[in-house]
Structures are given as C-alpha cells and as structure tokens.
C-alpha cells in the first residue's frame, strides 16, 4: 500500500508526517505492478514506492526474490526501526503454478513464502535494524 501507518506516523510516498489521520485511506492511489512470468528479483520501487500491490500470471512455478534490506531501507526516506508497510502478491493463474517469495541479504521471511494459484498473500514488512527487514506473512 502506498500509505503506511506506523507508531503514529504516516508515510505517503516520500512525505512523512506525525499526527492523527482521519478519513478513508483507501482513496489513495496505488500502482498495480505486473511482475514478469519468470524468476526475478523485485526492485525496492516495486515493493515500496509503487505501493506494493503485485500481480503475476505464471505459466510455471516462479521464484520472486524480494529486494535486499539495504535497498528496501534506502527506498524509505527517514525510516526508523519499527516502521512497517504492506506488500500484497496476487497469483492470477487459474491452477497449478505457485509463486515462491524468496529472501535476499538483510531480509527474512516469516511464515509461508508460497502464493498458490488463484490466491493472494499479504506481508507486513518491518524494519528490524539498519538495512534489515523482516517480511511477516499476515494473510
């Protein structure tokens, strides 16, 4: 999602502010990023800057490697340990072909890393230390 609420702070792209947010945040713009039908390493822009709404229609099982912790943190200007954001994967294939989310240096995945055919997965990504992130599967 392009907007992230973390410990009383809100990130909108590169704008960070503190305070109370009122209203419906679902009206904020998010870019849907279509991933390639191949094994690939995703960019920090795909998972952070563009809002983290990722779709793929694989024709075979595919590995999707998340960006390194260093690249992810670099895409979060002014980040502090404890900041979070969400990333969602949607597997659009009708049957059979799974996506497997794989870790990179400085990034850890907690929970299932498999996105089965015709399903979605949502991860809460938390900055756990300088240049280090943990991807928690929450749905």
The oligomerization state is single chain
Helix content: under 10%
Please list the strands of the largest sheet in the order they lie side by side: 4-6-8-12-13-10
Unreliable segments of 5+ consecutive residues: 1-27
Count every beta strand, where a strand is a DSSP E run of 2 or more residues: 13
- Global Rg: 15 Å
Structural class: mainly beta
Defining key terms:
139 residues; mainly beta; four-stranded mixed β-sheet; 13 strands; 9% helix; 42% strand; globular; disordered N terminus
Task: Give the gist of this structure.
The protein has 139 residues and is mainly β. Helix content is 9%, strand content 42%. The longest helix is centred in the middle third of the chain and has 6 residues, at 44-49.
Topology summary:
Elements: E1 3-6, E2 9-12, E3 15-18, E4 32-34, E5 40-41, H1 44-49, E6 53-56, E7 62-65, H2 69-74, E8 84-91, E9 99-102, E10 107-110, E11 114-115, E12 120-129, E13 132-137
Parallel strand pairs: 4-6, 5-7, 6-8, 7-9, 10-13
Antiparallel strand pairs: 1-2, 2-3, 8-12, 9-11, 12-13
Question: Could you describe the 3D structure shown?
Answer:
This protein is mainly beta and 139 residues long. It has helices at 44-49, 69-74, and strands spanning 3-6, 9-12, 15-18, 32-34, 40-41, 53-56, 62-65, 84-91, 99-102, 107-110, 114-115, 120-129, 132-137. The strands form 3 sheets. A 6-stranded mixed β-sheet has the order 4-6-8-12-13-10. The protein is globular. The two termini are 14 Å apart.
């Amino acid at each position: 999602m392009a907007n992230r609420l973390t410990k009383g702070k809100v990130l909108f792209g590169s704008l960070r502010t503190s305070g109370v947010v009122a209203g419906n945040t679902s009206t904020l713009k998010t870019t849907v990023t279509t991933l390639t039908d191949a094994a690939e390493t995703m960019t920090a822009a795909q998972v952070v800057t563009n809002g983290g709404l990722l779709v793929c229609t694989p024709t075979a099982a595919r590995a999707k490697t998340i960006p390194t912790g260093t690249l992810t943190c670099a895409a979060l200007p002014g980040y502090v340990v404890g900041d979070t954001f969400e990333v969602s994967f949607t597997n659009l294939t009708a049957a059979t072909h799974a996506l497997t989310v794989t870790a990179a240096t400085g990034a850890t995945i907690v929970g299932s890393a498999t996105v089965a055919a015709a399903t979605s997965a949502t991860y809460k990504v938390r900055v756990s230390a300088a240049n280090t992130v943990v991807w928690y599967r929450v749905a």
